[in-house]
Amino acid sequence: MAVNVHFTGQTTENLSRIELLAWVNRTLLAEFKKVEELCTGAAYCQLMDILFPGCLQLKRVKFCTNVEHDFLNNLRMFQNALVHLKVSKAVPIERLAKGRFQDNFEFLQWFKKFFDANYDGKEYDPKGARNNAPMGYGTPSTLRPSQRMNTVPSAGATTGPAGPRPLKRAGDTNGSTPRLHLMDKVEAAAEGDGSDGELRAGRGEKQLDRISSLSEQIDDLVIKIQGVEMSREYYYNKLVLIENFINEQPEETHDALCEKVKEIMYAAE
């Protein structure tokens, strides 16, 4: 039976997203670039296979996929394994599958603690166990989600009057709508025949490349902002704890160190 762990998100030993992602890639010999890519559920399935061999059918796991339906199937397999092992943690399947950073980051924090509490140190060949299937978001022939608007027709892509339309990535919000509208205009501008049509098509491709590059930069900046905000909250909470501790001490016990700490904390500059 598995060892249950409880996670509040307030402990000091929590790892950063970079450390957690490095741990996943190192353990599974994978190539995840972002925490959001764990929304596929494949990593959790194989990590469970390390902890409890045979707790799920690894051959049924979709290791390379960009289809939300596969994400849900993988995550349900993972959830069923936890239920079978009588683990009390509820898996937020729908939220994880949407690929949002915060949901996937918080769940990964819990799973790392669960893994550490249950791992017995046995050797494991992650690549051999998954038949050398690449581990990451999407298949080897597809780009990352932020680059997908510049892909060629593929299985699951829809086709419109102006040709193939890009796949909408899991986790997109209404904020991505202007990008898609802009792409429609670019595709329309690329239509035509003869040399004029070829010229417009060339310009359209350049604009699509530019849009794809800017989209990737936006994704990276969003992650950096989230990291900064989490760090800010972390250190702010630490300062509040220090302040409360000092203020709770009787006045007669205050020494020069406490007074200096308060002076620094309350300084205007």
Automatic annotation (TrEMBL):
Organism from which the protein derives: Anopheles maculatus
Alphabetically ordered keywords of this record: Cell cycle, Cell division, Cytoplasm, Cytoskeleton, Microtubule, Mitosis
GO MF term set: microtubule binding
GO biological process: cell division
Biased composition (Polar residues): 139-157
Compartments it resides in: Cytoplasm, Cytoskeleton
GO CC annotations on file: microtubule
Alphabetical list of SUPFAM superfamilies matching this protein: Calponin-homology domain, CH-domain, EB1 dimerisation domain-like
Name the record gives this protein: Microtubule-associated protein RP/EB family member 1
InterPro entries noted in UniProt: CH_dom (IPR001715), CH_dom_sf (IPR036872), EB1_C (IPR004953), EB1_C_sf (IPR036133), MAPRE (IPR027328)
Domain EB1 C-terminal: 203-269
Calponin-homology (CH) domain segment(s): 14-116
Residue ranges of coiled coil: none
Entry annotated with the keyword Cytoplasm: yes
UniProt-listed Pfam families: CH, EB1
Similarity field: Belongs to the MAPRE family.
Stretch list, region Disordered: 125-179
